[in-house]
Amino acid sequence: MRSYALVEFGKPFEAIDREDPTPTGTEVVVRVRRSGVCHSDVHIWEGFFDYGDGQKFKMEDRGMKLPHTLGHEILGEVVAAGPDATDAPIGKTMLVHPWIGCGECAACEEGDENLCAKMAALGVVRPGGFATHVVVPHSKFLVDIGDVDPSVAAPYACSGVTVFTALKKLKPIRDDEWLAVMGAGGLGLAAITIAKAMGFKNVISVDMGQEKLSAAVDMGADRTIDVRDAGEGALDELRKASEGKLMAVLDTVGAEATSKLGFEGLTKAGKYVIVGLHGGTFKAPLPKLPQMALTVAGSYVGSCNDLRELMELVKAGKVKSVPITERPLEKAYDTVVDLLEGNVVGRVVLTTD
């Protein structure tokens, strides 16, 4: 097998060849056919997440040891199984749920391994999908994609399930109320089309630049706001666009500017949910939270059951695909750099086919 591994934070990946993995116990080996590139991969490649005020959460503090293979949006053919993996779907192409926990805590026992305090996700702690093969601890983390295009299906393992789970937290919402999606990158575009599939009637997309906002309209956004054009009037534009009924904000960027705009735009009893990891600090007047009965929440990826639920919507044809660009696996590093520099519209999926 060959992997494109991070050997030094912030430096180009290196190709590493080794023997194909031999599964043990309940493990299954997946020959990677597709591997999506996520903005989280940028932060992991850099080696830290920005906590604001000069604080950084470093990847070595999360248990990462170099060299390490990134990539957590993985789809591929099951080619081998350990002796205890009796139900492994050998020969079938499956989507991999990468958010794997300890398997022993209450969260894991309840099926919420993404909430495990000792989560060891593929591509974060365990070797990931920027490789020709990946070892998955158990076949229960394999999700059927039906007839969905493999390149379309791969990003649902992270960007898709992340926004799907967050949108659940923003419901219920009335038909005359509005959802604002901050950011129209791969995550934001997925949020728009999935929100429409989930029954959100009115969606505003907020970003900079008409190329991304045009893509947001294609995904189903009813209104858009270009904050670069709006400038200091962005908050007034948001209130006007939402007709004073901004009940839900999904922040797929997670920057100080997007959190401030989204939070301040909420109407009474509104909810602000953040999934983006750009960095910084969140600041708000504390009395405003009870006075306006506002909710502020974080949402982290999703469970395997969430992913299966989302894929049923996708297989039923209810979710429009975000723009997908295919690149060969060896372009993993170049793609991370393009994401860092803002040169990607939609999602890039690496392929070995």
TrEMBL record:
This protein's GO CC annotations: cytoplasm
Keywords in alphabetical order: Metal-binding, Oxidoreductase, Zinc
Zinc-finger found in the keyword field: no
Cofactor: Zn(2+)
Entry-linked SMART domains: PKS_ER
A GO molecular-function descriptor: alcohol dehydrogenase (NAD+) activity
Matching Pfam families: ADH_N (PF08240), ADH_zinc_N (PF00107)
CDD domains registered for this protein in UniProt: 6_hydroxyhexanoate_dh_like
Domain Enoyl reductase (ER) residues, every copy: 52-350
EC number from the UniProt entry: 1.1.1.1
Entry keyword Zinc: yes
Family per record: Belongs to the zinc-containing alcohol dehydrogenase family.
Official protein name in the record: alcohol dehydrogenase
Gene source species: Albimonas donghaensis
